[in-house]
């Protein structure tokens, strides 16, 4: 068996230990005589899996008691509609939500929210090709916004908030799809944190939302019941059938993370991995990363070859070394290395070694 170094932006690499455990438990989970996929979500076996996953995630992120963890479906894109449908009802209609436009994903959130409320783009780096995050002091927040939305890690553009912006009493909503659990965050500074699972958590199909209690119970009447946070919370994420297998794998990833020393230890590794790659990219004129240094993502590292006619040769050579999925998103071109929690530093080192060798050959 050859396991490759998979730099995909998502679905993405998962810890090998987790995959092995899932394989071992596939046919007979803990003597139940069935796989987790075949279990009733209301049976005691699955309930125990769900409860452990919820408890471990709460511990890993130090989620305060006045927040609910919801296991949903619909992905990050689903949340772009689910969030306004649940939050704008707290204000007289039509309500306004503030957005900071820092890349493709916050852009998608803006577009979707316009179906449910007025959108104020409080700040944008679009004209500068999203090469930085507009500093907080430049944001033009509205007076009575229902919420402020940010994407704390832009998966395509490679910018990441390195701090939590202050927005007063207005609930701060963060799309953390592509960096949740990669760094320590103070959950109490947010009203809502959401993310699709398929980068740092588990398989696609599971979406996690962490919602402060007082923001639950205001859904617009048009909100589908399966996405009304009140119904979901009251039913322990089992108002409808939850993505049971995704929750199970996520739970195994949470246990793995705890064995690694939790989020603080993982953050230190992520800092080291990102530094290894960015330092090399910065040291050469052959490759470049165009993002302002204080806004660079530790998870998604876009880079360009100076001579873009070498792109295909670069990707082919990488494949020969089992370094896969390095092609940049089609909207921005170039290359992108996603180095999530489950990417070991050896994988990043193998990539840097390849970058050097390729440069030697073609530089
Ligand atoms: N937000 C961010 C930051 C993402 O990276 C992605 C997926 N790449 C999404 C939202 C959309 O997620 P999904 O495809 O699960 O709806």
In short:
The protein is an alpha/beta fold.
The CATH architecture of the largest domain is: 3-Layer(aba) Sandwich
What is the CATH C-level name of the largest domain?
Alpha Beta
**What percent of residues adopt helix (DSSP H or I)?**
25-40%
End-to-end gap: 34 Å
Question: In the residues, how many domains can be counted?
Answer: 2
Order of strands across the main sheet: 2-10-9-8-5-3-4
Please give the count of helices.
9
Q: How many beta-strand runs?
A: 14
Work out the radius of gyration: 21 Å
Cofactor: pyridoxal 5'-phosphate
Modified residues (N6-(pyridoxal phosphate)lysine): 199
Family: Belongs to the class-V pyridoxal-phosphate-dependent aminotransferase family. SerC subfamily.
Enzyme class: transferase
Keywords:
363 residues; alpha/beta; Aspartate Aminotransferase, domain 2; Aspartate Aminotransferase, domain 1; three-stranded antiparallel beta sheet; binds 4'-deoxy-4'-aminopyridoxal-5'-phosphate
Blueprint of the fold:
Layout: E1 5-6, H1 16-24, H2 44-60, E2 67-72, H3 75-87, E3 96-101, H4 104-113, E4 118-124, E5 148-151, E6 153-154, E7 159-160, E8 172-175, E9 192-196, E10 207-212, H5 229-234, H6 244-259, H7 262-282, E11 287-288, E12 300-305, H8 311-320, E13 323-324, E14 335-338, H9 345-362
Parallel strand pairs: 1-13, 3-4, 3-5, 5-8, 8-9
Antiparallel strand pairs: 2-10, 6-7, 9-10, 11-12, 12-14
Bound molecules: 4'-deoxy-4'-aminopyridoxal-5'-phosphate (PMP).
Subunit structure: Homodimer.
Cofactor: pyridoxal 5'-phosphate
Family: Belongs to the class-V pyridoxal-phosphate-dependent aminotransferase family. SerC subfamily.
């Amino acid at each position: 068996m050859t396991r490759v170094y998979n730099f995909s932006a998502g679905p993405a690499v998962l810890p090998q230990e987790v995959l092995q455990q899932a394989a071992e438990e596939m046919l007979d989970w803990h003597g139940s005589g069935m796989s987790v996929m075949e279990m009733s979500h209301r049976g005691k076996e699955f309930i125990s899996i769900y409860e452990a996953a919820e408890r471990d995630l709460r511990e890993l992120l130090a989620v305060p008691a006045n927040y609910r963890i919801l296991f949903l479906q619909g992905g990050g894109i689903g949340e772009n509609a689910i969030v306004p449908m649940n939050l704008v009802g707290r204000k007289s209609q039509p309500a306004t939500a503030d957005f900071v436009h820092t890349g493709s994903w916050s852009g998608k959130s803006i577009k979707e929210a316009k179906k449910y409320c007025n959108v104020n783009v409080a700040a944008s780096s679009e004209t500068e090709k999203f090469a930085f995050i507009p500093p907080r002091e430049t944001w033009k927040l509205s007076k009575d916004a229902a919420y402020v939305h940010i994407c704390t890690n832009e998966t395509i553009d490679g910018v990441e908030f390195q701090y939590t912006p202050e927005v007063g009493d207005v609930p701060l909503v963060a799309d953390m799809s592509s960096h949740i659990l990669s760094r320590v965050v103070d959950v109490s500074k947010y009203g809502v944190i959401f993310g699709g699972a398929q980068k740092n958590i588990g398989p696609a199909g599971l979406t996690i939302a962490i919602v402060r209690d007082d923001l639950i119970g205001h859904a617009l009447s048009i909100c589908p019941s399966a996405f009304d946070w009140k119904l979901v919370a009251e039913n322990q994420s089992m108002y409808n059938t939850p993505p049971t297998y995704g929750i199970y794998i996520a739970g195994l990833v949470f246990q793995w993370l705890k064995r690694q020393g939790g989020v603080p230890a993982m953050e230190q590794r992520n800092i080291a991995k990102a530094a290894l790659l960015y330092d090399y990219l910065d040291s050469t004129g052959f490759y470049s990363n165009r993002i302002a240094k204080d806004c660079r993502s530790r998870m998604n590292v876009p880079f360009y070859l100076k001579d873009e006619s070498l792109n295909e040769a670069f990707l082919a050579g990488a494949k020969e070394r089992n370094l896969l999925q390095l092609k940049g998103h089609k909207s921005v071109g170039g290359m992108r290395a996603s180095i999530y929690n489950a990417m070991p530093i050896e994988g990043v080192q193998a990539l840097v070694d390849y970058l050097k060798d390729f440069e030697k050959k073609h530089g």
